[in-house]
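[stage:ingest] chain + small molecule (alpha-D-galactopyranose)
[stage:ingest] validated
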Amino acid sequence: MIKYHAETRTFFLHGRTTSYVFRVCPEGDLEHIHYGKRVGEDDFSCLVPASELSFSPVPPGAVRQGFSLNVMAGEYGGYGQGDFRTPSALIARQDGEICSRFVYRGHRFRAPDFGDLPCARGGETLEVELSDLCSNVLLRLYYTVFEEDDVVCRAAEFINAGQSAVTLRRAFSFAVDLEGGDYDVFRLAGRHLAERTPERTDLGHGTLEICSMRGASSHQMNPFGALIARGAGEDEGECYGAELLYSGSFSLRFERGETERVRISGGIDDTNFSWKLEPGERFITPQAALAFSAEGLGGLSRRFHDFLRARVIPKRDVFAPRPIVVNNWEATYFDFTAEKLFALIDEAAQLGVDTFVLDDGWFGKRNSDKSSLGDWTVNEEKLAGGLAPLAERCHRRGLKFGIWFEPEMVSEDSELFRAHPDWAIGKPPRCTGRNQYILDFSRADVSDYLYGRMAEILSRYGVDYVKWDMNRHMTEFFSAALPADRQGELQHRYLLNVYALARRLKKEFPDVFFEGCSGGGGRFDAGMLAFFPQIWTSDDTDAYERAKIQWGTSYAYPMSAMSCHVSVCPNHQTGRTTPFSSRGALASLGATGYELDLCALTGEEKGQVAEQIANYKKIARLVLEGDCYRLSDPFKSNYFAMMTVSKDKSEAYAVGMTALAVPADFSRRIRLKGLDGRGEYLVEELGVKFCGASLMNAGLSMPRLNDFSAWSLHLHRVG
Ligand code: GLA
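[stage:predict] done
[stage:export] tokens:
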């Protein structure tokens, strides 16, 4: 709910339990008042007196003694009129000056047009229009309130209302100056095969930046961050989170300055960003979702999970049963024939798998990662008869047929590159990554070409499922199609056309299910989730490593967004051997599947596959719709445990794993969370009943387990 009090010129953005409050101050600037637990609609002007601070310049038009933008808590940082904190926008005029001060002009209730960018569905949007006193640019700040989810989405739009061009050198989505305090910053850092490792550090004075300059949101840093009150933990205390609906280079900054206030701001990374606005042109930023929780990081995660499921992930897919997949990548890599794949499909059908996904290597002359990306025609030398016999075999056996694409890439050794060397980003000398270049998606002819190739394959073979991969990061940022003064637009234009292609294909093929991927979880973000309801979480399929990766990912993203497959042992990434049952248990905490040669399994393992699938069908709704609770942190202890509880608390599913067996480990209990304290639950695997309060406060004994062994429990409320 959004309320405006004209007498005090104050905006109240209420969520179910939170309020976000700001006002137009006497000087016309937007002044932040409160973000946190819900408050009344009072006159808060006495909370924000102008207070003199030396070396804080007084801007023109100050009506209060000592007023300075350097001291004020703001809503979007200008530059050059005395605010020395991180600017939210840098606007260069034609004479070269960069200076901005944004003052209120008016407001209305209206949602913007995000063009090709993903945006959250619904909500109530406030548009505040500001004019830049230093240039002729109008700035519109958008606040979309999702009352039920307790989330506020922010975005900014720039309109050149002058007679000459200006260049945006930075255009962040949001900024907010929070009250001073002792805070930690929490982020998800990592690398390929080890994505989204949680890290919490003290925010001292200065700026802590979470960013990617790779043209993709990246394995290395996720576009999610949180500011946590020092005493807050998993289940208690105040936390603020920010998550960008964006999949490219980004920056999230946490800055504690001399007033002790903390400015959180962010959006597109500006290391190599610029956007030229001719008179009358506009630029809109990606959305940033902000959430506050007084129930610790666990509460914050659940806010984001609910928000992403209700507002971002495609409606049609979000709660629909997910395909149980067998993917041939780790089963065959590039070395397959139609016969080998037929056997895999037949075995999959026997075991109850419902989708076969043909991974990399089916096109051009692709027998290794050295060639053929871009040549999306079937390799009939390898696959006798092409894709039709495979698709038909799947459909005849009752399976869906899926296929891998890496649309954004081109191999140097490809027909496409030979025909269009200027379609690759950069110019020689340039880096390769996995022997490939990146296609210049800022060009419409490139994305149209990809649309044509993909649409033909999808329609010709009745493809049901697409895995969309992206296996390298951007290096030399140059487009042969852009003029010199627009080279800084390349990365963002690239992403807009990637989103547009995904949107176009989804519209044209509404029954095709799309999974995202980027060398595992290298583009696991809310932008991608707007198109792909699930993303391959990591190329690391080792059950123990997955416990950690899925744990980390759950801080920002729901279980249903994580594709999790059982693979073979010794594991291909770590060489580790874990029990088959553990691999199944961990893979059941997401969109499950298999990434191995089902034909090579022992009879007993095949039996386990059938059991795992039957179990998964029982708990799938909990994975898709439930509230996620983290129970035992595998980064801080020998034990991993997580659970999901249905919204009505009638059912729950918990999975745990012991990393290394501990001798005489007799007395370890695990306390469950999120249950109905007054309800009575049957713990299916133990055949016993407990009161919810007992399960949460006294806990259950953890079984004594061998190395990397897992357990799972299914609870039903019976009273
Ligand atoms: C990436 C993906 C893998 C697989 C390979 C194929 O690494 O994450 O799952 O598809 O590409 O080359």
